[in-house]
Amino acid sequence: MSTATREVQPGTRRLPVAQSRWKRLFKRPEAGALAGAVLVYLFFTVVAPPFRGAEALATVLYQSATIGIPAVGVSLLMIGGEFDLSAGVAATTSSLAASMFATEIAGNLWAGVVFALLVSLAIGALNGYLFVRTRLPSFLVTLATFLMLQGLNIAITKLVTGNVATRDISHMAGFASAHALFASSFTIGGVTVSIAIFYWIAFVLLGTWVLLRTKVGNWIFAIGGQSDSARAVGVPVRAMKIALFMVVGFSVWFLGMHMLFAYDTVQSGAGVGNELFYIAAAVVGGCLLTGGYGSAVGSAFGAFIFGMAMEGVIYADWDSDWFMFFVGAMLLLATVFNTWVRARASSGR
Amino acid sequence: MAAMEKIGRKLASVALGGAIVAGASVALPARSEAAGPQFKFAMITHAQPGDTFWDIIRKGAEAAAKKDHVQLVYLANPNAAGEAQLISNVVQQKVNGIALTLAFPDAMKGALAQAQKAGIPIVGFNAGGDAWKKAGLLMYVGQDETIAGEAVGERLNAEGAKNAVCVDQQQGAVQLEARCNGIKKTFKGKLDVLYVNGYDMAGAQARITAKLQQDPKIDYIVTLGAPFAPVALSAVAGAHSHAKVGTFDMSPVAINLIAQGKLQWAVDQQPYVEGYEAVDLLWLYLTNGDTVGGGGPVLTGPSFVTKANAAQVAKFAKRGTR
Fold this sequence. Notes:
The complex is a heterodimer.
Chain A (H helix, E strand, L loop, with lengths): L1 H5 L4 H17 L3 H17 L6 H26 L7 H20 L2 H26 L3 H24 L13 H9 L1 E4 L2 E4 H19 L1 H11 L1 H6 L4 H27 L10 H11 L11 H20 L7 H24 L3
Antiparallel strand pairs in A: 1-2
Chain B lengths: L1 H22 L15 E7 L6 H16 L2 E7 L3 H13 L4 E4 L8 H9 L4 E4 L13 E4 L2 H14 L4 E6 L5 H13 L3 E6 L5 H14 L5 E4 L4 H11 L5 E5 L3 H8 L6 E3 L2 H18 L9 E2 L3 E3 L4 H9 L4
Parallel strand pairs in B: 1-2, 1-3, 3-4, 4-5, 5-11, 6-7, 6-8, 8-9, 9-10
Antiparallel strand pairs in B: 10-12
C-alpha cells in the first residue's frame, strides 16, 4: 500500500504494477477466503441491523477465535499433508488435565497448566509417532486417538473426581494470574473484548511468518506437497511430521487453557465435533486436503466466516430451528465463492 | 481382598441370574426370600457422555442396585437409533428388567416390542412423560417437563419478566422442547428459543451474547441445563444486559451462584431419585408384583431451589448426588 503512494507521478507505469500486485494478492491461498469473509460480512450487515455494531463484532471475533486458535495449528499440519481429527477432544483433555492435576495433586493451577502442556505435546507426539511408525493414513491414526481420548476424558475424570465434570477452580491458588493471562477480557471504547482474540491474531501472524519466512516453513510446504522429493533433498520428513502434530497439540493446549479459565469447570464430554470446524476453517481458508498448499492467514478468514455464520443467524433473528442449516448454507456459499475467486485469479483475468 | 470378594460375588450373581433365566423364567416374579433373588437390570439412557446430570442419575441407580442386590448394566446413547439398539442388545442379554428414558418413543417402538415379547418388565424415567403409557411401559418416574415448564412460566410472570429466552442445549430432544413449550403456555411475555451446541461453552456464551445484543429488551434467560447457567451469566455481563438468569436442573456451581444471589433459581427434578426409583420400582415389581403411581407418573419434581434453601441443598450437591 505504501509503495503505491510512492509511485504516484509516473502515470503510465502505475497501472501495470498495481494490476500485478492485485493479481499476486488474488493468487494467494487465502484470497478466496478473504473475499468470502467480506461477502458474508456485507450480507449480515445488510440483513441484520444488530450485527453492525462493534459489540457484535467483538462477539463474532470471540467465537471465531475459539475456532481460529487451533485452526492455525491444524492448517500448518494440513499444509504438511496430514489431518488431526483428535484436536477437538484434545482441547478438552488439556483443560481436564490442568484442572485435575491442580485440584487433586499439585494444589496450584500453574502446575496444572504446565502439566497440561506436557500432556498435549505428548498427545501430539504420540499421534505423529504412530503415524510415521504405522504408515497408516493420519486420518485413521487420529480418528483412533480421537475416540480413545473421548473415552479417557470421561473415564479418568470420573475416576479422579467421582463426577463427570471437574471442580470449580475459581478459588484456587494461581487462578487470578492464570485467568488474567488466558481468559481475561478488557474494555475498548465501551466494548468488552476477550484476550483470546489477540492471541488468535498473534498465532496467525506467527504461523504466517514461519510458513513464509523460515526454512522450516519451506520444509512444511515440501513435505506436504512432495514428501519423497523432500526426503531426497535432506528434509527430516518424519521429525517434521511429528513436530507438526505437536504444534496442533500446543494450539489445542492454549485453547484448552482459555476454556478452563474462562468457564472454571470442564464438562468431560465437551469438544466432540469441534475438530471438524478447525479442519473446515483451514480448508475454507485455502488449505488443500492433499497438502502442500495453504496459509495460516487463510485459516483465520475461514474461522471468521464460521464465527460470522454462527452468530449472524442469531443477529438476523432467523428461526433457530434452522440454525445449522443456515450455518451450512453460508459455509457452502462462502466456499463456492472462494473457489470461484481463486479460479478466476489463477486463470489470469 | 475385598475387591476379590466383590468380583467373586459378582460372578456368582451372574451365574445365578443366568441359571434362573435358563431354568424357570416363570418362577421369577412375586417371590421374595431373605437372600433375595439376584436380578440383572439394564438402565438405558439418552445421556450425552460426560454430562453431570446423567452421572447423578446413574449414582442413584447404583445406590438402589446395591441396596436391592441387583446387578446393574448402565448404557447410554444420545441418538434415537443408538438408544433403540441398546434395548435390543440387553434383550439379547436376557436381563430381568429394563429402566429406560423414553426420549425417542417412535424410534424405540420396535425395540420395546422385542423386550415386551420377551416378557421383560420396563420402567420409564426422566423422559417420555407423555408417551410411556402408550408405549406400554409399566411405570414412569420423573418430572413432568410440561408441568415444570409451566411452573417456570408462572414464576417469570411473578417476577415481572416480559421478554425471555429459553436456552436449549440439545435440539430435537422432546423433554427439553416440552420445558420450553410449558413456559410458553403460562408465560405472558414473549419467549424465544435459542439452541446451543452441546458442551461447546465458548460457542454457547457467544450465542447467548449475540442474542442479548440482537434483542436488548430481553430481561430473563432460562437455561435448560445447569452447566449453561454460569455461561449465561457471563454472557449477560459481557453484553451489558440486565437480564436475570434461572435454570432447569442443578450443579454445585449453580447452587453456589444461587447462594451468592447471581442466579435466581434452579428447577430441581431430583435426578438421583429418578435413577434410584427406576431401579427400585423394577425390583418391587419383580419381587412383590407392585406397580406404583396409580396409573400416573411418580413425580420427582419440579421443586425450586432458591437463595432461601440453597445452603441446605449445597452439601448434597457437593457430594455429587443432587
